[in-house]
Write a structure and sequence with these properties.
The structure is a single chain. By secondary structure, the chain is mostly helical. It has one domain (8-430). It has helices at residues 8-29, 38-67, 77-85, 87-102, 114-118, 121-125, 132-162, 170-197, 210-235, 244-275, 278-290, 292-310, 319-354, 366-379, 392-413, 426-430. α2 (38-67) runs antiparallel to α8, α3 (77-85) packs across α15 and α4 packs antiparallel against α7.
Length: 434
């Protein structure tokens, strides 16, 4: 039974990263000229949602694998269990965001300004869902549910280990029941939360593909982190039973879902461009014209790079190639969340701060939404630190959140055996070959 030693050197490194992140958040709050603290709140929102969704995707994929009777991942399933447990931290982070919206501490969302909603037929029509009560209490209820299931997966897995060989598979049968129940719950509730947390930043815009798109981005990020953690731990002598075959399958997942993410990117963009509906095209017009580095760089890093590097079968079996792609694609999808959130936040704060809380906005109802989209570019036609591209404070904040995530994962790994020796699928995983 192999256990992971979370040594002081690694703890110090990750704690230092967290201090850097906290310091960057404080400096962001103290920046002059940002009366609405838009940069601070948008940085907190971006990283909180990004890492919470990574944890949710780990729990989701483990549940999907259990339900599908898959066994190949069993040798390293403790990593996904530990990632899923981060949802308790994600709940705290999103609770802070929910309280900030409920109490009116920030102006990230146009729909949270009562005067703007009153003069806008579109926002009024969405008010039954886009409101502070749904945002706060939906976050509490749904993320708590996600954590409940992730914690059950972990606790039943440890109980399975504690009681030794389970000849009637009673613990695994319970895990299977929880996994099957979790799948529809995470499917519907994650979409609702993505609409609230991210898509509603651009309150007049919507896309029926957006929840899939954001979830796929988080899923690819989760696979990248899984690869990087496994490769790091194998380099330190852990997970010797995790072979090139397992890494090859993770590489295939990274390759396949990078293509799936691109399919969603293209489908969302192409359909809205082809329809040429003003209230929808404004979202892409803003990003293409004023954020071209983010918009096209997003596609370059998250599709072109993994596609051409991982297309060859042998590169999915090389640690160097996998590490290179995983690092860049992970950062690329963090930037993807950046471009989902930042342009809309900047435009919203411009409207609320510079135009009398948005009274110029939406009086014509649906017809005026097209004008809103058409003029979005005009309002942010200059470089804005922390919004046009990630600045040093954004990078530092990202380092802090990543360090927090890894600290939690490594701490969870150190509390139990690295390998679930009594999982009924352990022998299938030990002899896994592709």
């Amino acid at each position: 039974m192999q256990s992971f030693e979370f040594n002081n050197r690694l703890k110090t490194t990750l704690l230092s990263g967290m201090v850097v992140g906290l310091l960057c958040l404080v400096l962001t709050w103290l920046l002059p000229g940002d009366d609405l603290h838009a940069r601070f709140w948008s940085n907190l929102l971006q990283n909180s949602v990004f890492f919470t969704m990574i944890a949710a995707m780990a729990a989701f994929f483990m549940a999907a694998s259990i339900t599908a009777w898959a066994g190949w991942y069993t040798t390293f399933k403790r990593i996904w269990e530990s990632m899923g447990l981060f949802l308790i931290v994600g709940l705290v982070l999103m609770l802070i965001m929910g309280l900030s919206v409920y109490m009116g501490w920030n102006h990230l969302y146009h729909w949270n300004d009562a005067e703007s909603v009153a003069g806008d037929k579109i926002l009024t029509g969405k008010a039954s869902f886009l409101n502070k009560n749904w945002y706060l209490f939906g976050t509490i209820v749904f993320v708590s549910m996600w954590y409940f299931f992730a914690n059950r997966f972990r606790s039943l897995s440890l109980a399975e280990e504690k009681h030794g060989e389970d000849k009637d598979f009673s613990h695994h049968r319970k895990i299977r029941i929880y996994a099957a129940a979790f799948l529809p719950i995470i499917g519907f509730t994650s979409a609702a939360m993505i609409w609230q947390w991210i898509m509603s930043v651009d309150a007049h815009w919507y896309s029926t593909l957006f929840a899939w798109y954001a979830s796929a981005s988080a899923f690819v990020s989760m696979i990248c982190l899984t690869l990087l953690i496994l490769i790091y731990l194998k380099g330190r002598g852990y997970f010797e039973i995790v072979t090139t075959e397992h890494l090859h399958d993770l590489g295939k997942l990274l390759f396949a879902f990078s293509i799936f993410w691109t399919y969603l990117w293209f489908s969302q963009f192409m359909l809205i461009w082809y329809a040429n509906v003003g209230e929808e095209t404004g979202y892409f017009k803003l990003r293409m014209h004023e954020y071209p580095i983010l918009f096209w760089g997003n596609l370059l890093i998250n599709f072109i790079l993994p596609f051409f590097v991982l297309m060859r079968n042998d590169t999915k079996r090389k640690l160097g190639s996998l590490t290179f792609v995983a690092i860049f694609v992970f950062i690329g999808h963090w930037v993807d969340y950046f471009q989902m959130i930042k342009p809309g936040v900047l435009h919203t704060t411009h409207e609320l701060a510079g135009h009398g809380h948005g009274h110029d906005h939406g009086h014509e109802g649906a017809g005026h939404a097209a004008e809103h989209g058409a003029h979005a570019v005009e309002h942010v036609s200059h470089f804005v630190a922390g919004f046009t591209i990630p600045g040093l404070l954004e990078i530092g904040t990202f380092i802090g959140f990543l360090s927090l995530f890894l600290f939690f994962v490594f701490n969870s790994l150190s509390r139990a055996s690295l390998v679930s020796e009594h999982d009924p699928y352990i022998h299938e995983s030990l002899h896994h070959h592709v």
